[in-house]
Amino acid sequence: MSQHKRVSSRQVSSRRSFLKQTVGSAGIAAAGGGLVPYFLTASRAAAATASGDRPLIGCIGLGGQGSWNMELAMKHADVVAVCDVDSNRLAEARQNAGGKADMYDDYRKLLDRKDIQAVSIATPDHWHTKIAIDAMKAGKDVYCEKPLTLTIDEGKKICQVVKETGAVFQVGTQQRSDMDQRFLQAVAIIQSGRLGKVHKVSCAIGNAESSPSIPIVAPPKELNWERWLGQAPLVEYRWQGGKDAEGAEIPYKSRGHYEFRWWYEYSGGKMTDWGAHHVDCACWALGLDKTGPNAVRVDFCEHPVPFEKGYPTLDDRYNTATSFHVVNTFDDEGVELTIRHDTDNGILFEGDKGRLFVSRGKLAGKPVEELTDNPLPADAMRKAYKGSEPVSHMQNFFDCVKNRKEPISDVFSHHRSLTNCHLANIALRLNRNLKWDPVKEAMIGDDEAQSFVAREQRKGYEITV
Question: What is the domain-level CATH number for residue 48?
Answer without folding.
Answer: 3.40.50.720
